[in-house]
Task: inverse folding
């Protein structure tokens, strides 16, 4: 028996990186998946890699910072999935800069993607998650637990996301809903390529944490019997970059 058989899952950021890996892992384990991202090409590529479009692999294009698009996306996702057992938040944005110089607009932008969008989407999907006694996964970051120089704005939006996850857990556990935050370190993919460029250091994808490893760890936690709840998981590359 596949571990997520007949479950419906909405995955944001599914056009790339960890979101794509989560969608692939869930589909391979029997879930019907609705992939969400804002870039048409990367979203289509993820769907293709999962063998879709098909009744079990669908997608909705959505900019998660636009409330009207989120409402429309949720309607579409619920219509096609019939039920939503898992909401996985993986979409995220990163901007680097010292507090002295990073424009406030860049803090606002990251807040909208990393904090506000998961809040709004979770709120919109909660009635469905209550019906299914479902699960919510927040892909947070090691930077949401500790901030370094030039990471303040990003870290603040991710630390806030942890607080939202913790609060949500306290509110919905009684309804049978589980809430998991994962805190990956540097994970190979376009976001880390961008960060390495900004840090002026060579990018070696093979030395970093792999998105499939993060997804595998998350799925193991989400598949545990309902007598258990994994709340927070940190996962880091074996080779530390200092
Ligand atoms: N990579 C790391 O080292 C690392 C480590 C710890 C935590 N994280 C977090 O883990 C999550 C996944 O990271 P990743 O490395 O897989 O990143 P990624 O490859 O950049 O994937 C993130 C996806 O989210 C999409 N997205 C961004 N803003 C969106 C919006 N407003 N509406 C819809 N989709 C949007 C991106 O689209 P665009 O490409 O068009 O922006 C991209 O396809 C993020 O939340 C990130 O903050 C990453």
Result:
């Amino acid at each position: 028996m596949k571990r997520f058989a007949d479950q419906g899952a909405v995955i944001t950021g599914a056009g790339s990186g960890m979101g794509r890996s989560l969608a692939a892992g869930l589909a391979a384990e029997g879930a019907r998946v609705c992939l969400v991202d804002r870039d048409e090409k990367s979203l289509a590529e993820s769907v293709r890699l999962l063998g879709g479009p098909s009744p079990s692999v669908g997608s909705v294009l959505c900019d998660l910072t636009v409330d009207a698009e989120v409402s429309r996306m949720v309607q579409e996702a619920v219509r096609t999935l019939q039920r939503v057992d898992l909401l996985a938040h993986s979409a995220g944005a990163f901007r680097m800069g010292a507090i002295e110089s990073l424009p406030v607009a860049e803090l606002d932008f990251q807040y909208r993607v990393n904090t506000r969008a998961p809040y709004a989407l979770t709120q919109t999907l909660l009635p469905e998650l209550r019906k299914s006694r479902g699960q919510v996964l927040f892909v947070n970051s090691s930077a949401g637990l500790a901030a370094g120089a030039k990471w303040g704005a990003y870290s603040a939006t991710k630390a806030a996301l942890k607080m939202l996850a913790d609060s949500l857990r306290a509110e919905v556990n009684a309804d049978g809903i589980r809430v998991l935050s994962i805190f990956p370190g540097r994970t190979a993919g376009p976001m880390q390529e961008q960060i390495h460029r900004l840090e002026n250091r060579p990018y070696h994808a093979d030395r970093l944490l792999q998105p499939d490893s993060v997804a595998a760890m998350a799925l193991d936690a989400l598949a545990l019997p309902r007598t258990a709840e994994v709340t927070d998981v940190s996962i880091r590359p074996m080779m530390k970059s200092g």
Q: What stands out?
A: The beta strands are 8-12, 32-37, 57-61, 86-89, 135-139, 178-184, 232-235. The chain is about 45% helix and 15% strand. The chain has a mean pLDDT of 97. The two ends are 42 Å apart (CA to CA).
